[in-house]
Amino acid sequence: MRGLLCSPLPMLLLLLQPWESQLQFAGPRCRTGPLDLVFVIDSSRSVRPFEFETMRQFLVGLLRGLDVGPNATRVGVIQYSSQVQSVFRLGAFSRREDMERAIRALVPLAQGTMTGLAIQYAMNVAFSVAEGARPPEARVPRIAVIVTDGRPQDRVAEVAAQARARGIEIYAVGVQRADVGSLRAMASPPLDEHVFLVESFDLIQEFGLQFQGRLCAIDHCSFGNHSCQHECVSTFRGPRCHCREGHDLLPDGRSCQARDLCNGVDHGCEFQCVSEGLSYRCLCPEGQQLQADGKSCNRCREGHVDLVLLVDGSKSVRPQNFELVKRFVNQIVDFLDVSPEGTRVGLVQFSSRVRTEFPLGRYGTAAEVKQAVLAVEYMERGTMTGLALRHMVEHSFSEAQGARPRALNVPRVGLVFTDGRSQDDISVWAARAKEEGIVMYAVGVGKAVEEELRQIASEPAELHVSYSPDFGSMTHLLENLRGSICPEEGIGAGTELRSPCECESLVEFQGRTLGALEKLTQNLAQLAARLEDLENQLASQK
């Protein structure tokens, strides 16, 4: 692949006009028939001003080669960084001049690069009928052109696969620093026709002309025998076979078979999905029961835990990653049986200072906890993990904050989530937490220091320390945490919430105490006998 040369701005502007004109006058405009086309434009911080101008002119040049109209090609544009913004929707404009005016007025967002979020927006919003897309039964091709210059900060493969499964054809165009692996994960097959890495400014016109040429297609289904089992649809890449509802196209491109819905929808089953005709159902492992939502399996129900989460809100985390942390916390809450009598959850955020977001005794349902987590505002600043541990020990597990009395023997669990080295000493309060009987877990991300994670966590470290190289891949830690925190699977198995003053408890206590005293008496008698033998041996030697 050829390299993109960072030319000075005046030179780029000189090059833009001929390219734009070439697309405009390359020949008659395409008569494609109906087409819904959405451009997904990366306007992240890494896109320099003159590079964004390049993409702007790229869009204008392509528009001038399209047959735009309500009954022909409908065009929509969205831009994204850490958020997604609709520049104009598919049904907004029918005149090319109005579209060009909106594109020229476009202001970059200049934040992160959440490409997966942009694809999800395109799939769920931009290509919706409400936004101007033709309904699915109209069989109008849906095409998304993603133009990006860097590596996504979120996952793209799964959401891109969902978009393609919904019939959206994806072209991935990378400029200069774009990650080829991500482009290939997003694009439709065949990849050699849908992935473009533009490493030279001159090559942008190459993609534009190729793309324009593919749109200019004849009705291929009218020529020869297409051999489609159900239906043939003519596209700009040639004839394409479609299957009836509830069926999927086989690899031969012609035959159809009944759809395995578990592979074609976001079923949400926690353990296993089983297709049954035009529907599906979720299954759970042996010994676990399906919950009322029809998707999740047994939660932590055989015991009770007081759980306090310490979340790092320092500047190094960054706002978009803090949102991922909040999502991760809510996924932990999902497998807990949150209630006043069951598991209680508290949340503390720390940076240069410590703030209790909500104490253990405030919320009595998982829904309330999750809503409160989503409302937490990012603190930024430093990383005072030692101060956070002290706050947890001195305040978070107090009865005033909602912790249950120690006499009830409810396990106390602290989970520290951090992405870097602490700016204060953690050793004293990490040790104090464990002395107080708090079972400590440490979750590290990115530049978290392993030595500190081990110092925070209870023994053995292999069961109490988790690590993820980046925020986007944290979800693989959930199963480990579930196995450790869930009372039936980990620390609090079989814990009963009983008053020590109940009659049965007193009888049980007295029985255990008498048994222990009896055993102690036997041991003392054996020790006395051994001492007497030793004295006799010493006397005989004299």
TrEMBL record:
Protein name, entry field: Matrilin 4
What InterPro entries is this protein classified in?
ECM_Assembly_Org, EGF, Matrilin_CC_sf, Matrilin_CC_trimer, VWF_A, vWFA_dom_sf
Domain VWFA: residue ranges = 36-215, 306-481
Q: Name one Pfam family in it.
A: VWA
Q: Where in the cell is it found?
A: Secreted
Question: Which stretch is the leader sequence?
Answer: 1-21
Q: What is its main location?
A: secreted
Q: Which SMART domains match?
A: EGF (SM00181), Matrilin_ccoil (SM01279), VWA (SM00327)
Q: What is the source species?
A: Lynx canadensis
| UniProt GO cellular component terms | extracellular region
